[in-house]
Amino acid sequence: MSAPPADTAAQPGKGGAAVFTPALFAIYDLAVSPVTFDVMNFFIFANMWSMRAGAAGYNVIFVAGPGGRFRDLTPKDKSLDPAEKTWRLRHIMVSHAHIAKRCLGVSTYDRREDFGQMLRAIHPTQLFPPGYTQSDPRIPFMLVDLFAQNPTPDELDVFAPDAAALRKTQAWLDRHAPRGRPVSLTLRSSTIEPQRNSNMPAWLEAAARIRDRGFDPIILPDTELVTAGQDIGAFGDIPCYPMGAIDLELRAALYRRCLVNLADNGGPAFINYFMAASSAVCFLPVEKLPEAVTLQGGGLDRMAELLGVAPYESFPGATPARRFVWKPDTLDNIMDAFDAAAAYIAAQQ
Q1: Based on the domain organization, do 105 and 193 belong to the same domain?
Q2: Which domain of life is it from (predicted)?
């Protein structure tokens, strides 16, 4: 599947107020797609495609599988019951639409048959993925496919929090980041594949050292920890921002306000790579590979392939403040990564 060439994009809105520029309809088919933060890759694809097609933007449609069911393929799929998947659809998946800059609307269809009636009214040229049918749904959310299209920096600038979210986050930071130099630490502490969880003692000691360097460390905890009420007091005297764990826009706003964003295991923190000027220093699970990698007999090469990069490399345009860290999350490695990012950002100011 190849996107339209980048240099052939039309200019939506040009040519007079009476000109109507159609939008695309981007279909996320839950029969074959996951209910995880991988959905952001779908939005990135839809953003690029709509820009190259000269569309006004895109409307996202989440459609249930046959019988209202979700995909049940991977270990992560099988660890989530239908109620949990529905919660994720409402609070994770749909939330991406509200901070996607070119997304014009979002809807969900619990009954596949209802969407089938609407699908007949959509012109084929307005469909994304192109050629989508309910009998042959497409799943364009793999990063390797995205980067094969050679996206431009503008095409990768997909998400942005609204002014109200930034204002609310700044009000919180005014109270909890007294030095005005916030640094986020996004940590994993899940009961799903717990062997992948963050090295919490190392991260908490790193937070203390970051504070000693004159910054304001802020823990962005795992959603599962927050919804279970286990975040309270879990990080000692290091401030915790639980709202960002359950509200994607507030999460994005915190990331945008922080000088450095450190993260372990990727997931929701990957959104930083697709917000212009946002720091993103993510430790990859090199010694705690996901089951989706290991059950296929894969190792670091397979994880790199899923990320769309070569082993030990980062996304295009990497800097010390926007890169992957292909090392375990030990205290020394965390501090080395932070110091490099902070020095780079200071040199740019």
Answers
A1: no
A2: Bacteria
Distance CA 36, CA 267 (A): 8
The whole-angstrom separation of Cα 282 and Cα 285 is 10
For residue 158, tell me if it sits in a domain: no
Q: How far is CA 128 from CA 6, 101, 236, 268, in A?
A: 17, 17, 47, 24
Instruction: Say whether both 80 and 204 belong to one domain.
Output: no
* pLDDT at position 76: 85
SS3 37: coil
The whole-model pTM stands at: 0.91
**Residue 292 and residue 75 in contact, taking contact as beta carbons nearer than 8 Å:** yes
Q: What is the H or E stretch that residue 167 is in?
A: helix 163-176
The confidence score (pLDDT) of residue 15 equals 43
Report how many domains make up the chain: 2
**75 plus 185 within the same structural domain:** no
What pLDDT is recorded for position 52?
Answer: 97
Give which of 88, 89, 104 is closest to 46, Cα–Cα: 104
Token pair 């933060």 is found at: 37
Contact 161, 48 (CB under 8 A): no
Cα 255 to Cα 260: distance, rounded to the nearest angstrom: 8
d(CA 242, CA 249): 13
Give the model's pLDDT for residue 14. Answer: 44
Contact between residue 86 and residue 41 where contact means Cβ atoms under 8 Å apart: no
- Is 167 exposed, middle or buried (CB count within 10 Å of its CB: 0-12, 13-18, 19+)? exposed
Domain that holds residue 62: 6-151
Q: How far is 79 from 74, CA to CA, in rounded Å?
A: 9
Q: Which amino acid is at 273?
A: Y
Our CA angle for 284, 270, 189, nearest 5°, is: 60
Q: What is the mean pLDDT of each run of 10 residues along the chain (349 residues)?
A: 47 54 96 92 96 97 95 88 95 96 97 95 94 85 87 96 98 97 97 92 98 98 95 95 97 98 92 95 94 82 91 95 97 98 95
